[in-house]
Amino acid sequence: MSRIRSKNTRPEVLVRSLMHRLGYRFRIHSRKLPGSPDIVLAKWKTVVFVHGCFWHRHKLCPYAYSPKSRKAFWEKKFADNVKRDRKKARMLRALGWHVVTVWECELEHTKPVRERLKLIRDNAS
Q1: Domain assignment of residue 4, yes or no
Q2: What is the pTM of this model?
Q3: How far is Cα 93 from Cα 113, in angstroms, rounded to an integer?
Q4: Which residues, in sequence order, are CB contacts of 101 under 8 Å at separation 6+?
């Protein structure tokens, strides 16, 4: 587990690349906000979290499998991750921020993700 990155993962870099091509300018990993969001679009008061399906338990996703050994440990770890994700999103919404979550498996086909990211600008206008 020590080799698993928490920042600048492949899915995160891909989303940042898509957003940059769409003309967005953003900050990454802002410690000023609860949960240090992966991407912060201050102009639109929007944050983007890029979640790995395995670690953040994307429902009905084949990547969100559970390891067969040490089941109690993994169940607790995954439950804590999901609880923390909900808390971060709730805190950000309470501060008036819009929260967008992009799942790792969604990046297999980037066109729908690109369309959803375009909506950030459209909804703010």
Answers
A1: no
A2: 0.89
A3: 22
A4: 48, 49, 50, 51, 89
For residue 70, give the CATH number of its domain. Answer: 3.40.960.10
Domain assignment present for residue 112? The answer is yes
Res. 118 pLDDT band, cuts 50 70 90: very high
Contact 108, 63 (CB under 8 A): no
Query: What's the structural domain count of the chain?
Result: 1
pLDDT tens digits, residue range 21-80? 999 999 999 999 999 999 999 999 999 999 999 999 999 999 899 999 999 999 999 999
